[in-house]
Design goal:
By secondary structure, the protein is of the alpha+beta class. About 45% of the residues lie in helices and about 15% in strands. It has 27 helices and 36 strands.
Length: about 1000
């Protein structure tokens, strides 16, 4: 009987063959899924850019990136592939290999074809990605505009250094990388297949390998010769130990040395090419050694000798011409060359009537600190838990009753976290879609109890500002996305604003063009994938009229449509032409301006109000405020206006994106009246002027008169934050009338750990662009620097703050204010050049420790010279400071907290909204203020009872009784108004 033969073993290959198609299918499906996700992201971007009207920007970027990727891929892959192929095809057929190489070949041979194509492909992908990332430098090279001025060393247009030199150096660096990688792979391939053999000390190279290696080496050295030649031009943009730009040593040693080295490298390259023909390695090897020795002697040792033994002993005299270049071009690059410097003999004696000539400035002194009073906005104007105000408010100005009024402004934006457990997908993305209204308070006024005096407030928004669309769909804190819009005739579901009293909340439907339309299943699917939410695809509230709003931050929107700009960190809202818009300042930057000193952008703009993280492009030596941008708070539309039309970088980008930027002539007069000189540009300029206010090279070298920005004195002695600049309406020496300005002060630069906190300079710039359509006022951007004499010891901000804190009378008053568990908050310390000297003004706020409390302006500190005063109002403080009569009235007249129109509106009385509607109003400002005060008084009573402080308990009880009386009077007035005939 024959034994059975098992058939299990032969089935294994069959099973493997069956699994192979399954694995291939899974791989294909996975690749298709990934490709669809990538496509969905790109398609969503196309819809977004197309809706906002900047599809040109998106298309130009992608075409440039894809084109450069292909170029980079081919430029790397083809030479590498060709080098490997040539080395393999010219290998010795009968080369005698050692056993080790035989083993290597056995391992490598099955993978040879994959490696010969795979290695170039992988390197090509990396090169393509790297090349695509430099799309901007390629586009600006193709569209470059000349600067119209030349550098003092080589006489080349500055545009050569900004646009061309970085492009040429990047091409040489890329080509060098391609040749170097090719050379390494050629050597490896020839060694593996026996064209290069090492026998003891002898290296045997076949003829074909010799020719290929010699030509490759020659090409590499030719590229290095070009690179070294270009490096000589880079000396005018490199930063040395003394300054940025070519110094004496660079001009007389480094630059000639690089020229000589470039010639030597070119000669050695030719010797390698000769070796490819003659087959003799001696000359190129000697030349290579000569190049290395020359680079050490000429490139390093000789410049060191010149610097050490010629320059250092006489540095001030020898470096003076080059320091002068550095000073002139730095001031040009940062836009401070035309600064008006004024010698200011500051008085220190506070004489009666000294402010009579500065009455306009005195009346506009801003006491409401935007960094302090945000809690007051929240308590008085937030109304609902799903609204919020930013921690840092903004400063703007409006013309009211024919007078310019500085204001503190903020948008009432959404806060979805306030919904708590009601924060469902439906509520978060379909119902609570927008903020509501702009709140504005007078910068120089206060109510009788220290509250802000609101010029625009309430829901619906009412006040003295022009009428405007109050709904804020695009704000600094808007939700990540909202779905809005519905067919005509359907019931609205978006919460417009809450109603006061017993009224019903108001609903609305967005009727603008703010986002891509979700009008088909495919678009819904794309956005469901983008935002990882199946509800977008499944919800029956998403219809053919629905729009999805996202990327809603003003800065984010401008950055996406203008990738060539660096944006100011402080965007602010303004009412312009019956719309609420965000105004964003855009900068064009460079770090390649010859002889201009490089400044850290993030360090220069960081202060106690904002700390900026280091940017990828942080070292800057050229800046222009080239663009003013607006973002409509209702529909998110973005408009870019060319502001600095003489900026060559902006001209270049305008050629790249010809449809993206509007001319300044398109700006309305109302918009012109709200744009301002940007704070980040001003901070950069003050950082530069700390040293570059000195124009004499000898004095500059010795740093005898170097200044710095003082630390913020309100942050305590341990702070390292700089004092921020402030916007004020004031009259500088040399001006005929007060102008909206931004200013900062200077003190002597610290020497070691010691620093004298005396005032040395006062920098201000005219920030008022006028109010004519498309025409900037002549004075806008005019920089003025007041220089105080060296022997004039006018106290700086730190000294003044220390005087305030240590004065016995002030300390006693502050201790009284701190009773009852209250905190005393020092507001911004303002400095004003009035009365022939420098006046310091600081508001003092008091805030109780209750959760619902907010700062109230209670006192004002002022100082002039060594004299100080501390009173309830600025007007009183100035009169006390200047001998009983300052000669001018301040603007902080105490008023009762009322509604913006000055008349208390009964609860529920109709009031027009931003569009003139007749929707019901919420609690008026006076009633809300009284209720907040009553709540605070009850909290104070409870706290005093717990502390056993019966005096504080009695004071709080009396305050509560007074508030109740005021509420009764208010209620009586409301009922009387309701009973009055309509004709009265």
């Amino acid at each position: 009987m024959r034994p059975r033969v098992s058939t299990a073993q032969p089935q294994e290959p069959t099973t493997q063959r069956r699994r192979a198609p399954i694995a291939i299918t899974i791989g294909i499906v996975g690749a298709l899924v990934i490709a669809f996700f990538v496509f969905a992201g790109i398609y969503a971007d196309i819809l977004w850019y197309d809706q906002i009207g900047f599809l040109e920007v998106f298309a130009t970027q992608w075409v440039a990136r894809l084109t450069l990727f292909v170029i980079g891929f081919l430029a790397m892959a083809i030479p590498v592939w060709a080098s490997i192929q040539i080395a393999y095809r010219t290998r010795p057929v009968y080369a005698k290999l050692n056993s080790q190489l035989d083993r290597y070949q056995e391992i490598f041979e099955p993978l040879r074809r994959l490696a010969m194509y795979g290695i170039p492909a992988v390197l090509g992908i990396f090169a393509g990605v790297s090349t695509a990332s430099r799309w901007d430098s390629v586009l600006v090279w193709f569209n470059r505009e000349p600067f119209g001025s030349t550098d003092p060393q080589f006489g080349l247009d500055i545009g050569f250094y900004v646009f061309e030199l970085p492009f040429y150096r990047s091409i040489v660096a890329f080509a060098s990388a391609v040749v170097l990688l090719s050379a390494l792979l050629v050597i490896a391939t020839n060694y593996l297949y026996g064209a290069i053999r090492v026998s003891g000390r002898e290296v045997v190279i076949s003829k074909a390998a010799r020719i290929q290696i010699a030509i490759t080496a020659g090409l590499y050295l030719l590229l290095q010769a070009v690179s070294i030649w270009l490096d000589q031009y880079a000396t005018v943009t490199e930063t040395g130990s003394l300054m940025t730009g070519a110094s004496y040593t660079d001009v007389y040693a480094t630059i000639p040395g690089r020229q000589i080295l470039a010639v030597i490298a070119a000669v050695v390259a030719i010797l390698f090419l000769v070796t490819a023909i003659l087959g003799r390695w001696r000359l190129p090897l000697i030349g290579t050694v000569l190049l290395i020795v020359s680079s050490l002697l000429i490139g390093s040792l000789y410049p060191w000798v010149v610097q050490r033994f010629q320059v250092d002993p006489s540095a001030r005299a020898l470096e003076a011409p080059y320091i002068a270049r550095n000073i002139d071009l730095t001031r040009d690059a940062f836009g401070v060359a035309d600064i008006e410097e004024i010698q200011y003999e500051a008085k220190t004696d506070a004489e009666p009537g000294a402010l009579r000539a500065d009455a306009g400035t005195t009346a506009s002194i801003r006491l409401m600190d935007p960094a302090v009073i945000s809690p007051a906005f929240r308590q008085l104007e937030q109304f609902r838990q799903y609204y919020q105000f930013p921690e840092m408010l903004d400063v703007d100005r409006y013309e009211i009753d024919g007078e310019s009024q500085d204001t503190v402004v903020a948008v009432r934006d959404l806060n979805l976290e306030g919904l708590n457990d009601a924060q469902t997908w439906f509520n978060s993305h379909l119902v609570y879609t927008h903020g509501y209204g702009l709140v504005a308070a007078a910068g120089n006024q206060r109510s009788s109890d220290g509250q802000p005096v609101f010029l625009q407030s309430g829901i619906p928004s009412t006040g003295t500002l022009p009428e405007f669309e109050p709904r804020v769909y695009f704000g600094e804190n808007s939700p990540d996305y909202s779905i809005v819009g519905a067919p005509e005739g359907t019931d609205p579901i978006e919460l417009d604003f809450p109603a006061g009293g017993e009224g019903e909340p108001q609903q609305t439907t967005f009727d603008g063009d703010g986002g891509p339309v979700l009008d088909n299943l495919f678009t819904k699917l794309v956005y469901a994938l983008k935002f990882q939410s199946e509800q977008i695809f499944l919800s029956d509230q998403v219809n053919e009229q629905s729009q999805i709003l996202y990327d809603r931050s003003p800065i984010e929107r401008v950055q996406k449509v203008a990738p060539f700009l660096t944006l100011d960190t402080d965007t602010y809202p303004s009412v312009v032409d019956e719309r609420l818009v965000w105004i964003v300042d855009g900068y064009t930057l460079s770090d390649q301006y010859p002889y201009s000193n490089k400044v850290s952008y993030s360090e220069a703009i960081s202060d106690s109000e904002s700390v900026q993280a280091p940017l990828a492009f942080d070292e800057v030596n050229y800046i222009r405020n080239s663009v003013k941008a607006t973002v409509d708070a209702y529909d998110g539309s973005v408009t870019l206006y060319a502001w600095d039309t003489e900026d060559p970088i902006l001209k270049t980008w305008s050629k790249v994106f010809p449809e993206a930027i509007e001319p300044m002539s398109e700006m309305s007069g109302e918009l012109m009246s709200h744009v301002r000189y940007p704070s980040d540009l001003f901070k950069m300029q003050r950082a530069v002027l700390g040293r570059y206010h000195v124009t004499d090279p000898v004095t500059f070298y010795s740093r005898e008169d170097a200044w710095t920005t003082p630390l913020d004195p309100t942050q305590g002695t341990a702070t390292s934050f700089l004092q921020p600049p402030y916007y004020l309406t004031m009259q500088m020496p040399g001006q005929e009338q007060p102008t909206y300005s931004i200013y900062s002060t200077f003190i002597p630069e610290a020497r070691g750990s010691a620093s004298r906190n005396v005032l040395r300079g006062y920098l201000a710039v005219d920030s008022d662009a006028g109010s004519e359509d498309g025409e900037r006022s002549d004075g806008y951007g005019k920089l003025r620097l007041l220089s105080l004499p060296e022997d004039d010891n006018v106290p700086g901000p730190g000294q003044v703050q220390n005087t305030f804190n240590s004065d016995p009378t002030v300390s006693q008053s502050l201790n009284l204010l701190k009773q009852g568990q209250s905190d005393v908050i020092n507001g911004n310390l303002l400095t004003l050049p009035v009365g022939g000297g420098l006046l310091y003004v600081q508001p003092v706020y008091v805030r109780s420790t209750g959760e619902t409390s907010y700062p109230l302006l209670q006192k004002v500190l002022v100082a002039f010279g060594d004299e100080i005063a501390f009173q309830d109002t600025l007007d009183e403080a100035l009169n006390v400071l200047f001998g009983g009569d300052s000669g001018a009235a301040a603007g902080d007249v105490e008023v009762e907290p009322t509604t913006p129109d000055g008349e208390p509106a009964p609860d529920g009385e109709p009031a027009p909204d931003g569009e003139g509607g007749d929707t019901p109003t919420t609690e008026d400002t006076e009633l809300q203020s009284l209720l907040n005060r009553a709540r605070q008084a009850m909290d104070d009573k409870q706290q005093a009872l717990q502390d056993g402080d019966w005096a504080a308990y009695g004071q709080a009880d009396a305050e509560l009784a007074e508030i109740i009386s005021e509420l009764i009077v208010l209620a009586d007035e409301g009922s009387t108004a309701e009973e009055a005939p309509s004709g009265e």
